[in-house]
Fold this protein.
Amino acid sequence: MDNTFIQLAVILLAAFVVSYIIRVLNQPLIIGYILAGMIISPFLVGIGASTGTIEIFSELGISFLLFIVGLHLNPKVIKEIGGSSLIIGLGQMILTFVTTFLVSNYIFDVGIITSVYYGIAVSFSSTIIVMKILSDQRKLDSLSSKISIGILIVQDLVAVGVLIFISSMSGINHTNTFESFIAGAFLIVILFFVGYLILPRITRRIAKSQELLFLFSICWCFVLAALFLYLGFSMEIGSLLAGVILSTSPYAMEISSKIRPLRDFFLIIFFIILGLRMQISHLQEVLIPAIVLSGIALIFKPFALMILGRWFKYTKRTNFLVGFTLAQISEFSLIIAALGLSIGQISAMAFNTIVLALIITIFLSSYSITYSSEVYNRFSNFLSVFESKKIKKENKIKKEYDTILFGYNRIGFSILKVLKELKKKYVVVDFNPDIINNLRRFGVPALYGDVYDMNFLEDLKLEGANLVISTVPDLETNQLLINTVRTVNRKAVVVLRAHAIEDALKLYENGANYVLTPHFLGGEYVAKMIRHTKIGDKDYKEEREKHMKMLKQILSKGINHPEVEKN
């Protein structure tokens, strides 16, 4: 027992030191955890230390990870991801899987089963890494981010099916795989029945106590994981289904927030164990295959995503950003590979190859996501092949306009309403083809185009515009817009949007007449209501009725806060 605590202390100390250095280099901490395991692996092996106890911690980390993933996989989410994300996600996975399988089987000659695992591993992208970087950059609200998140949800749903399939083959009696699969499917149906009819009554009672809700959620996760393990399935699928069943509960988000600290701790141990298994002495043997797999994830996968995005008439910039965002291997890939290793379907060499490919792709993709706009600026002229030619033919407005609204979203709706009331000659510009089609259906003059595209801006009649409004929250895009406008039109009133105070001040320095800061404006508006009304005053009732009417009008136009942003 003493040795176990000493080993755990050494591992956590190494993880902290290495992860701190990784953090200073602005890299994802997951790389620090894995590298820490690789660095201390020779030391632990040299003193004859056993990782048995630590591996138990790693299995708990997997369980908590899948449990929380399940909490975000509400069956209703399928309706929210959109048809484009669904088709692009499935198409990319199929193309990537086939390419990786062919390369692995016919060039490296690793065998069919190992090639299948390689194909699966490269097909998935990292939800943890993508969400973390996009959140840090405050870009979760952009169109490319929404498409990326939708694709990640599709991948998570496919991963559920893969885990169920592999789990059905990892039972105690392998000769009855089909019977085991049927029994598992029957058990899942029963559990969803329990979750739909019985679980809501239980959670409604225990939710009055935060401690009981916390204890119940852990209990539910472990009981289902143990049940599936006892019946010959993997505990991973039990943990995942425990989360999916609880996802329909109104307390799902609260449960997720309470479980997260425990999950983070055990997850750290899990990734360190991956590093322990990936010994430095074996790097030479797996280096070339890992580099090839990384190349497919970093080059071919973005290429496939951009081709599929072109089919849905997204701009070349949107397609480029989606491709670069998803150019890495997923932590789900490691979980599936670890399961394949535990049941003897792949070798330790194949597992190490996937681990090294994960490290390479996460390391490089973190840079590609961060500097994707700069890279796009350099190569935008060569990316026209990823944009449909039909778009340019449709971008013709016969009527003259003196007002241009860039971005029709929750803010743009209200602005457009005022422009109509003032009888302004306006045109709406957006790079979401669905929005453009919807606007044209209602007789609104609209152009499909990307504000970040200099060629597109030059084609617009900016010199004749009296008012230019942008509801796009991206700082670089708005800086490009105002610089372009001021070059040809000094008199135009330019209204822009910013998320952060620093961004707003920069736009004012660049010559913006006014900068929208929605979060602060909302607070300012409520403050005015409080100042000019009394508690219980009828003014609140009038304001409430007006607000409800506006929200219903917006909702009728198909605009809403997408649930995928909460993941």
In short: The longest strand covers residues 426-430. The chain has two domains: 2-379, 396-566. Residues 3 and 179 are 43 Å apart (CA to CA).
